[in-house]
Specification:
Elements: E1 2-7, H1 12-22, E2 28-35, H2 39-49, E3 53-56, H3 59-71, E4 77-80, H4 81-90, E5 96-99, H5 107-115, E6 119-122, H6 125-142, E7 145-148, H7 151-158, E8 173-180, H8 190-194, H9 198-201, H10 211-219, H11 221-233, E9 241-245, E10 251-257, E11 262-266, H12 272-280, H13 294-297, H14 311-322, H15 326-342, H16 350-361, H17 371-391
Parallel strand pairs: 1-2, 1-5, 2-3, 3-4, 5-6, 6-7, 8-9
Antiparallel strand pairs: 8-10, 10-11
Helix pairs in contact: 2-3, 4-5, 5-6, 6-11, 6-15, 10-15, 11-14, 14-15, 14-16, 15-16, 15-17, 16-17
This protein binds nicotinamide-adenine-dinucleotide (NAD) and magnesium ion (MG).
Magnesium ion binds near residues 150, 152 and 226.
């Protein structure tokens, strides 16, 4: 029986993970479930799974959960705050940590799981973007087994040479080709992009995801973050990572070998496949995912990305070239810009502007030898972007 800590249990990836686990209760046991402040969501999970621990990052929410868990007569122990998240991520009884917190909030517990040598099923791409080198060191030091959950990186991982381990340069591989759906605005003009609303931005054509990653997909920053993610996971320079628009999201990415072969993984766009793969690799477990029927689909299409319309992609390439703190600055600026856009306070096209501004003005050459160094630059960038937003009399002047 493998014991699992599920970070981000109430989210989109968390819910898909629980769906898989419910079919494999003979193999996996939910040891702990963690969330931010969704008391009802985590209570529902506690009632269904009775994990040893339930952790809420928000202390006040943890208190409310605690009284509900007691009233229900459950044996689950409720913990609060980041210390609680770290405790269940490095707990000696835990075999697998599914890292599915959204954003920089996932950094500290995810690194803790890596240092503790867990099988780490990584969905929280922001950790790799912010802390690439530090995080990969933690994986190495802890001798953790790092398996990507992000569908493109799962496809690349599954297409790697036999025996491949993340963090190593794959032998015989010349290029990684990340596929991208292009998001809901793939065919929009610049004029149309000026008008898009949060509701339009979170309505992704192929994937059902949390709000932040949905907006990232709409700006194509998601692909930008994924380029940086692939760079660290597969130890490949960004010059060897291409992006290919593939609106159907069936081919989940490709590995190009020196002999001219391109190897890829295909499947219905459903995160339960890459999550199941990460949980069980190199074995396979069943899922409720609808099987792919290529004859019914008929055709798949491909296009080159439009870097002018979607500058976030270019900004991500720029950040990794700048190195140092630049990817962490990119990530923090993006998180603040996306959250403010979702609140309806800035226009869609202000997102890349704010990120570009932060990359130019923040000290990207700062040394980030430790996690506290990283958290300082993260905080400074967030403050800078918030100041930029409030400095504008009218948010529309941002575009
Ligand atoms: P979501 O918004 O649906 O869920 C986020 C989860 O994180 C929730 O459980 C929430 O309670 C928790 N959380 C938020 N802030 C927290 C904090 N401060 N402390 C502790 N927990 C906190 O997000 P999602 O779509 O499930 O995405 C999760 C991660 O997986 C993201 O990094 C995303 O980029 C990545 N990812 C998601 C998908 C997808 O299909 N949803 C695909 C690939 C990668
Ligand atoms: Mg992805």
């Amino acid at each position: 029986m493998q014991k699992i800590t599920l970070l981000g249990a109430t989210g989109s990836i968390g819910t898909s993970t629980l769906d898989i686990l419910s079919n494999h209760i003979d193999k996996y046991q939910l040891f702990s479930a963690c969330a931010n402040a969704d008391v009802e969501g985590l209570l529902k999970i506690c009632l269904a799974w009775e994990p040893r621990y339930a952790v809420m990052a928000n202390v006040e929410a943890a208190e409310r959960l605690q009284s509900k868990v007691r009233a229900a007569g459950l044996s689950t122990e409720v913990l609060a705050g980041e210390d609680g998240l770290v405790m269940v991520s490095e707990h000696p009884e835990v075999d697998i940590v599914v890292a599915a917190i959204v954003g920089a909030a996932g950094l500290v517990p995810t690194i803790a799981a890596a240092r503790a040598g867990k099988r780490l099923c990584l969905a929280n791409k922001e950790t790799l973007v912010m802390a690439g080198q530090l995080f990969m060191h933690a994986v190495e030091e802890g001798n953790a087994t790092l398996i990507p959950v992000d569908s493109e990186h799962s496809a690349l991982f599954q297409s790697m040479p036999p025996g491949y381990r993340t963090g190593k340069t794959p032998v015989g591989v010349e290029k990684l080709i990340l596929t991208a759906s292009g998001g809901p605005f793939r065919q929009y003009s610049l004029e149309q992009l000026k008008q898009v609303t949060p509701a339009q931005a979170i309505a992704h054509p192929n994937w059902n995801m949390g709000p932040k990653i949905s907006v990232d997909s709409a700006t194509m920053m998601n692909k930008g973050l994924e380029i940086i993610e692939a760079h660290w996971l597969f130890h490949m320079p960004c010059s060897k990572i291409d992006v290919l628009i593939h609106p159907q999201s069936i081919i989940h990415s490709l590995v190009e070998y020196s002999d001219g072969s391109q190897v890829s993984q295909l499947g219905t766009p459903d995160m339960r496949t890459p999550i199941a793969c990460a949980l069980s690799w190199p074995d396979r477990i069943t899922t409720n995912v609808k099987k792919l029927d290529l004859a019914q689909l008929g055709q798949l299409t491909f296009f080159a990305p439009d870097l002018k319309l979607f500058p976030c992609l270019q900004l991500a390439f720029q950040a990794i070239e700048m190195g140092g703190a630049a990817p962490a600055i990119l990530n923090a600026a993006n998180e603040v810009a996306v959250a403010t856009f979702l609140e309806g306070k800035i226009p869609f096209l202000a997102i890349p502007k704010l990120i570009e501004d932060a990359l130019t003005k923040m000290p990207s050459s700062s040394s980030i030898a430790t996690v506290p160094d990283l958290l300082i630059i993260d905080r400074q960038t967030r403050d800078h972007v918030k100041r930029q937003i409030s400095n504008f009399e009218s948010a529309t002047t941002l575009i």
